[in-house]
Design goal:
This protein is of the alpha/beta class. Helices cover 35% and strands 18% of the residues. The chain contains six helices and five strands, in the order H-E-H-H-E-H-E-H-E-E-H.
Amino acid sequence: ADEYIGILKNYLKEKGLKPDKPLAFLCNPPYRSDDDQAASAVSYGIHPSIVDLTSTDGSSERYCCFLAQMKLICEKAESSGLPGNSLLLLFTKAAWLTDRLVFQKIRSEIMGSFEDIGGIIVKSKEFFDVKGSFPIAFTLWKHTGGNKNLNPTRSVEIRDLTWVKKKELTAIRWD
C-alpha cells in the first residue's frame, strides 16, 4: 500500500496534478476457477499485512488477497493526505460475500470499512465465456475507514439477476 500510494503521488506530481480526489478502483480481481486446472495455485509469498486481513486459508484465494490489498491502499491513501471516501467497484465471484469460514475474515474486514452502495449478481456463464456456472457479483463500495461503525457481519442487499440470460443481458440499455 505504501509503495502504491508513493507511485501514485509521484505520477500526479510529475503531471502537475494534485492528489486531491478520492481513489476509485475498478477491479476484476483474479481468481482460479475450480474448473480451470491449468491455472496454478498461488505459489508466491503473500505479504503478512494481507494474510492478517484474509486469514491463512483466505490468502489462498487470489481475489481475497486483492480485496485485502485494496483495503490497505484505501487506508493508506487517507493516512497519507488523500481524501477519504475512496470507491471500490468490484466484479468478483460472489462467494466472499457468504458466511463460509474461509471468507469470514476478509468479509468482516471489508464490511467494517466499506459502505455497500449497491450491486447485482449474475450467473458467470451468462455474462462471461467461462467453463462452469457460478455467481458473479458486481458491487460498489465506499471506503469509510470504520468511521461509520459499520456492522462487519451485516447482510448485503444485492439485486438477483441470475435468472437473466446472455441474450437479455446484451440488450440492457446500461445508460
